[in-house]
Amino acid sequence: MTYRLGLTGSIAMGKSTTAALFAAEGVPVWDADATVHRLYAAGGAAIPALSALFPDVIDLGAVSRPALRARLAADPAALDRLQAVIHPLVAADRARFVAAASAPIILLDIPLLFETGAERDCDGVVVVTAAPQVQRDRLLSRGQMTAAEVAMLLARQMPDADKQARATWVIDTTTLDAARAAVRMILATIRKGQPDA
Q1: DSSP assignment of the chain, as one string?
Q2: Taking residues 52-74, what's their average pLDDT?
Q3: How many angstroms separate the CA atoms of 62 and 5, rounded?
Q4: What are 73-108's pLDDT values in tens digits?
């Protein structure tokens, strides 16, 4: 029986780094963000529906992310229509990955794990976290958002404390060494058959 471990956390909390740490320990990883990128690419499964819904965001047969961001900023209700198309396609891709899994433990890297109810498909959930100032600094250091945009984005996300309260395990990603040690501890616990909070 394959153990399905969910991984989530707010933006810039270190989720991608933590997923890479699990992968380095030999755990197969399914990545929701990478799946969305494939769906948005030319020939992706989401393109026909999105072409009909938002023809202005399609460029050379693929979704233009800047155009999509602009569309969502101008029309917040468009997000629900977008998610109605994307979430079922992402869930189907995840289901195919799980069905094909032969490893004893797999990792499902899902940014909106709790928001989409995907925790019901997991045997345990890891939430990554860092201090609020570390999160803000990481976001601003990317140079893609202003401080005001960061504040607006964080206000729309489920609070970190709420995610931690629903987690099986919490990993503080402030330092890489501590995160790696936590990953190894979680895997050892699962392998012993005694997952606990």
Answers
A1: --EEEEEE--TTSSHHHHHHHHHHTT--EEEHHHHHHHHHSTT-TTHHHHHHH-GGGEETTEE-HHHHHHHHHH-TTHHHHHHHHHHHHHHHHHHHHHHH--SSEEEEE-TTTTTTTGGGG-SEEEEEE--HHHHHHHHHHTTSS-HHHHHHHHHHSPPHHHHHHH-SEEEE-SSHHHHHHHHHHHHHHHHTT----
A2: 91
A3: 31
A4: 888 889 889 999 999 999 999 999 999 999 999 999
* CA 91, chain centre distance (Å): 12
Distance CA 76, CA 71 (A): 8
Tokens (6 digits) for 47? 């393109």
Q: List the domain boundaries for the chain.
A: 1-28+103-197, 33-100
Domain 1-28+103-197 belongs in CATH node 1.10.10.10: no
pTM, 2 dp: 0.88
